[in-house]
Amino acid sequence: MTVAAVIVAGGSGLRVGGEIPKQYQLIGGKPVIWWTLRAFLEHPTVSFVQCVIGAGHEALFKSATQGLAFTSAVVGGSTRQESCRLGVEACVSAKPTKVLVHDAARPFISAELISEVIAELEHADAVIPGLPVADTMKFAPGGVITKTVDRSAMWFVQTPQGFSFPKILEAHRKAAREEQSGLTDDAAVAEFAGMEVRIVTGEQRNKKLTTKADVEAANAELNMRLFVDRPDVRVGQGIDFHTFEKGKIVTLGGVEIPHSHKLKGHSDADVAMHALTDAILGAIGEGDIGTHFPPSDMQWKNAASSIFLKKAMSLLSARGGVLSNVDITILAEAPKISPHIAAMKAVLAPLLQISHDRIAIKATTTEKMGSIGRKEGMAAYATATVRLPL
Ligand code: MG
């Protein structure tokens, strides 16, 4: 048996009301579609994954799937039925014997449910997961009840919906030929073509993210898992000083700020980024910047300090860790720091892989006391909290 999976991500997701379609919004730090695709790409029995995306979503899709062993996408049609047909057609050259069609907006699909649908396809041409109806159901056209429906035979259906590949391909072609439109899932296409469709029990958590509240709840759940899996909380501290020399710009937190002097140093002398890098290295007990980038090594001359920070983040990632928050205090009489804090956060957030609300940047003078008060240089103090698995 060769199993293909078609992931349907053609919707514009307007119901959620976000700036970008819901399948590309971030939950647990990754786009919704990333979690969905990963479930199928990592499944041992699924050998081919085909995505169907919305027109104009090509760039969103490319950036959302970074790091996944995956590139195949076709642009969908104007209805779900049309998008599914185009996705199934795109699998023809891969010659699968079975195909699963799944909503991109169901990121909590489990490997167990995928396996169960595939296993049931040994005995049937069409298998879909569904949940029994727990509440009493009423038939009420126009808001007035005319009867109580027998709920024992009713199901809420989910995806992945599994099919014999040649049969669902022919069913989709037949529906297109006969101009039968408005079929809202692939099971309806199978029913239209006269196929018998079986139901297996789905999963409550395999919910379709439809509203803004759904996306927010999914984000909270994934963030909680990320934290629960990393209970070892550690704090690191970093301190750095640099003196001023003749120049026109100081670089702080990756942002160039016009000033009467520049900071003297081997690299770009970004005192804030150096303190932050040492705080992260300190939290995981990995020495300091000098350990990894000896000042005697000429290759770091005038280097952008982001390379030091990236090194600290890669050491943290290698341990399975994540940053929880960072807090930086810059000590300087001048220049004025506060107008540049938002720009620094915009530089740091993608490097640190945390949101802006987990980055604090503050500045203080020393009330003209000491070397910093005499404007001989600047200093920065930073703390970083990391979470590691045990
Ligand atoms: Mg330094």
Can you tell me about this structure?
This protein has 390 residues and is an alpha/beta fold. The protein has two domains: 3-226, Spore Coat Polysaccharide Biosynthesis Protein SpsA, Chain A, CATH 3.90.550.10; 230-388, 60s Ribosomal Protein L30, Chain: A (2-Layer Sandwich), CATH 3.30.1330. It has helices spanning 32-41, 58-64, 80-89, 111-120, 165-177, 186-192, 212-228, 271-283, 289-292, 306-318, 341-352, 370-373, and strands at 3-9, 26-27, 30-31, 46-53, 73-75, 98-103, 126-132, 137-139, 147-149, 155-157, 161-164, 198-201, 232-246, 249-252, 255-258, 261-263, 322-331, 359-364, 377-388. The strands form five sheets. Strands 1, 4, 5, 6, 7, 10, 11 and 12 form an eight-stranded mixed β-sheet that branches. Strands 16-13-19-17-18 form a five-stranded mixed β-sheet. Strand 14 (249-252) and strand 15 form a beta hairpin. The two termini are 40 Å apart. It binds magnesium ion. Magnesium ion binds at residues 240, 242, 265, 274.
Secondary structure layout:
Elements: E1 3-9, E2 26-27, E3 30-31, H1 32-41, E4 46-53, H2 58-64, E5 73-75, H3 80-89, E6 98-103, H4 111-120, E7 126-132, E8 137-139, E9 147-149, E10 155-157, E11 161-164, H5 165-177, H6 186-192, E12 198-201, H7 212-228, E13 232-246, E14 249-252, E15 255-258, E16 261-263, H8 271-283, H9 289-292, H10 306-318, E17 322-331, H11 341-352, E18 359-364, H12 370-373, E19 377-388
Parallel strand pairs: 1-4, 1-6, 4-5, 7-12, 17-18
Antiparallel strand pairs: 2-3, 6-11, 7-10, 7-11, 8-9, 13-16, 13-19, 14-15, 17-19
Bound molecules: magnesium ion.
Magnesium ion binds at residues 240, 242, 265, 274.
